[in-house]
Specification:
Elements: H1 3-6, H2 22-54, H3 61-87, H4 103-112, H5 115-123, H6 126-154, H7 160-179, H8 184-238, H9 240-268, H10 271-276, H11 278-287, E1 293-298, H12 305-326, E2 331-338, E3 341-348, H13 362-371, E4 375-379, E5 386-393
Parallel strand pairs: 1-2
Antiparallel strand pairs: 2-3, 3-5, 4-5
Helix pairs in contact: 2-3, 2-6, 2-7, 3-6, 3-7, 6-7, 8-9, 8-13, 11-12, 12-13
Length: 400
Amino acid sequence: MTVSDSLPHDDRPPPVRFAYDRQTWKEIAYLLTNLPAALAGFVYVVFTVSTGAALSVTVIGLPWLVGGLTGARWLGRTERARARGLLGVRIDEPSSLYAYGRGRRRDRARRSEGLLDWVWRGVKDPVAWRTVLYEFIRLPWGVVTFTLALVGLFVLWPVLPHVARGLTNADRAMVRGLLSPSDELERRIAELESDRGVVVDTAAADLRRIERDLHDGAQARLVALAMGLGLAKEKLTEDPEAAADMVHEAHGEVKLALQELRDLARGIHPAVLTDRGLDAALSAIASRCTVPVKVTVDLTERPAEAIEGIAYFTVSELLQNVSKHSGARAAAVEVWRTEDRLMLQVTDDGRGGARLEGGTGMSGLAERLGAVDGLFVLDSPAGGPTVVTAELPWRRRGKA
């Protein structure tokens, strides 16, 4: 009979167990895997960058480098997963190279992007380059941490948890500093670059529309007017009555041409908006809607001319949709300011079911507002009502 057997059950010594908790073992595992992970990453980035630099004088040099940087993004994703699983470091995944922009703008940018655009986008990718830097400095650090962790398992056992915690804290800082998503400035720069293309496309489409309206409308009418006046001039001495009739018809054509030019000018920028602001301009387009529209504008000052124009044309197109597609009996337009945002809301009691991709111009409106850092929200359940809320950045009048 042993001494321990003679002791009461509650006085027996506890069973032998490891002094390290689960997190400590995870940190030790991370340190021991640092060397193979760092070695693989270092070899990859050195081979990729050096080969890309050597081939830069050829046509395949830069595409090769871009492919290598894309692979570096994958290495960064692997390292974030390892840090998340073993160190508990929670870091969001960076956006992909094509994640900037919204919906159809992003898809259109991908379709229209040429080889040079793709290469330039890949070469200047900050996420990939930070991963390359991370892999460069990881090799000596991986050697140090692997050695200390391995020696600690056999020599520094009592203090190894403290050593592991200190070393992995440095790893945590390194992962957060170099493998975190791009900062907000980089994200906004990339998004604004995408938005710039939308603005250019929209402006070109507007110019083509104006040219088409001038060619098919006022220009054609003025050509017919000139021909009619020419014939009237020839008949002036031979048949004064016929000439007078032709002049009378020409006078009517002049009136129609002037009306078409006024309508075209209103489509470019209405005079009532310039002279009297959103309240009067929105009331004017509401009066032309086929359903009664209540307009409420609560603004103590006018926004910048560009923002005012975008707000006007947004409401104008929405009210056209109400007239053509909603089957509504009444609609309402509200405009107000909330801090640094200009808010628009158009509602109708129609059948609902509107969609951004429904061919009613909603997607184009969403793209235009997104191009100036605005928002477009559509809520249109089947059976109605339809509520469209738009936000625009508030900019003071007289400022860009």
